[in-house]
Amino acid sequence: MSTQTTPADHTPHTPLEAWRALQDGNARFIAGNTLHPHQDAQRRKDLALSQKPFAVIFGCSDSRLAAEIIFDLGLGDTFVIRTAGQVIDNAVLGSLEYAIEVLGTPLIMVLGHDSCGAVTATKDSVESGELPRGFQRDLVERITPSVLEAKRAGDADLQDMVVEHTKQTAARLLDHSAAISDAVTRGDAAVIGVFYHLADGKAELVYSNDPRFQDA
């Protein structure tokens, strides 16, 4: 008896292979042909003692941005980190470094999306001069440079600001973390920025530190 072979049966080992696997999963999600790989009892048992995810997805906490769903993934496939507006802090950097240095994950994806509430709040604060109260202020302050840069470039649209923030966040990972930067320099890892369209489900590449990704 033949068995069905899916992309999820072959774990990617390079940054480019990881991105292509994510693209394939996203294409299945868009088409409504999801395979729901690695979601059975055997997979759960196989992962009980160790994990080897092929990508880190650092995305926004928005409820519509469930990474395992939009990329048609299963248990053990990705190491997922989420904060509102994909804002970087020390805990995020530590988690990313763990994935790169300890788990050997070859790809970091920064995942933003249209109609982002955190970027919307930042845009409103920049335009009104009023900051939100409590710890939401910290989120706004960290996103403000991206909003200001988009405005300086003439991009006043919210979606342009989200794309700019996604690009800046991806670039900052390389600036802030020697561990990530070193892995990228060695060719062991890559960092990309992806913009997710809520309406059609498409994950669009908007940033890469490696030109090979532009043609992938």
UniProtKB/TrEMBL annotation:
<dbReference type="GO" id="GO:0008270">
    <property type="term" value="F:zinc ion binding"/>
</dbReference>
<dbReference type="Pfam" id="PF00484">
    <property type="entry name" value="Pro_CA"/>
</dbReference>
<dbReference type="GO" id="GO:0004089">
    <property type="term" value="F:carbonate dehydratase activity"/>
</dbReference>
<protein>
    <recommendedName>
        <fullName>Carbonic anhydrase</fullName>
        <ecNumber>4.2.1.1</ecNumber>
    </recommendedName>
</protein>
<keyword id="KW-0479">Metal-binding</keyword>
<comment type="function">
    <text>Catalyzes the reversible hydration of carbon dioxide to form bicarbonate.</text>
</comment>
<feature type="binding site">
    <location>
        <position position="116"/>
    </location>
    <ligand>
        <name>Zn(2+)</name>
    </ligand>
</feature>
<keyword id="KW-0862">Zinc</keyword>
<feature type="binding site">
    <location>
        <position position="60"/>
    </location>
    <ligand>
        <name>Zn(2+)</name>
    </ligand>
</feature>
<feature type="binding site">
    <location>
        <position position="62"/>
    </location>
    <ligand>
        <name>Zn(2+)</name>
    </ligand>
</feature>
<keyword id="KW-0456">Lyase</keyword>
<dbReference type="GO" id="GO:0015976">
    <property type="term" value="P:carbon utilization"/>
</dbReference>
<feature type="binding site">
    <location>
        <position position="113"/>
    </location>
    <ligand>
        <name>Zn(2+)</name>
    </ligand>
</feature>
<dbReference type="InterPro" id="IPR001765">
    <property type="entry name" value="Carbonic_anhydrase"/>
</dbReference>
<comment type="function">
    <text>Reversible hydration of carbon dioxide.</text>
</comment>
<dbReference type="InterPro" id="IPR015892">
    <property type="entry name" value="Carbonic_anhydrase_CS"/>
</dbReference>
<dbReference type="InterPro" id="IPR036874">
    <property type="entry name" value="Carbonic_anhydrase_sf"/>
</dbReference>
<comment type="similarity">
    <text>Belongs to the beta-class carbonic anhydrase family.</text>
</comment>
